[in-house]
Design a protein that fits this description.
Layout (H helix, E strand, L loop, with lengths): L2 H9 L3 E5 L1 H10 L5 E6 L10 H12 L5 E5 H6 L7 H18 L8 E4 L6 H12 L3 H6 L14 H17 L3 E5 L3 H14 L4 E5 L19 H14 L19 H9 L12 H8 L7 E3 L9 E3 L2 H9 L5 H15 L1 H9 L1 H5 L9
Parallel strand pairs: 2-3, 2-5, 3-4, 5-6
Antiparallel strand pairs: 1-6, 7-8
Helix pairs in contact: 1-2, 6-8, 8-9, 11-14
Length: 367
Amino acid sequence: MDIQTKIDLVRRSPVEEIVTEADLKKVFENYAHPRHYIGFEISGMLHIGSGLCTTLKIQDFIAAGIKPTIFLADYHSYINEKLGGDLEKIQKVALGYFKHAFVSLGLDDSKVDYVLASEIYDRDYWKYVLQISKDTTLKRMMRCLTIMGRKESENTSCAGVVYPAMQAADIFKLNVQIAHAGMDQRKIHMLARELSHHYKKDFVAVHGHLLPGLQGPGRMNAPGVTSGPAKAEVDEKVEEEMDAKMSKSKPDSAIFIHDSEEQIKSKIKKAYCPEKVVEGNPIIEYAQYLVMREKRLSITRPAKFGGDLDIGTPEELKQIYLEGKLHPMDLKTAVANELSVLLKPSREYFEKNKQYLEQLQIKDITR
């Protein structure tokens, strides 16, 4: 596979920015199988934004010859009081439910390296944390607290202030060439990139679109800029819109990867999807970023309501919807059906492996 094809695979939706494509080209020129990582806090059930969307993107990386790592950030989760701040439970869920959530979507150990953060935290790692803390102002570190889902003005523990340095140190310790995350993590990646040149740990940052919650609106649609006034606008937009993204802490706002067909249809039926409105419409986005990556969208409806539609691209879908040629309920039905198909492997996996759901005290995935 030629380098441009590999770059195109990395650039493929839902990626919003690559910092930078010139650096990515150099990575592919120098590495046959570059190392990648994406990190996750361990905080409960996995929804389609963090689970399905990430899996589809990792499959692009694999096709490009990249070796992916899913980083199970147990200490970070502990600092951020996930799962009640119970470190033992966090670690159990990390290697149990959380890892197997991705396995259920097709990312087994033969395709992805799973790394529990605390297992690689040696003297070299903590030296990186100290170096990064020394080379970063407290003000800059506080600005990065948004990566924890917190605002600068919120009270946080002293350990929380070290959290951004730890996340940057993860990148350096893993010695990756590509760091991958949602747009909400760009601040720490920009800090780490600035320091990486000095530490001789250069890497490319790949930032993906954040799917909105079912309640809408709130698109994360920041352009690919890396410095100057435009960058400041991107950071401000990211902070303002983080609350609108799909969140496992708001169950009604999210579709979980092992939801039943009935749950998926029920949640989407109640979702925000105003007629002739594309911006901030979560159902349009689910169609664009999940359903239509690999296939066309088929709308089945009676002739008296316009007959069937076969929609080839997201752009075509948006135009048809803006013109009022597609009713919200017809769109919702089609998207719910397609998501049910995409998530079928996960539902079936957890039906056979309920012990992982029980780690989260979930006895029945249909509830």
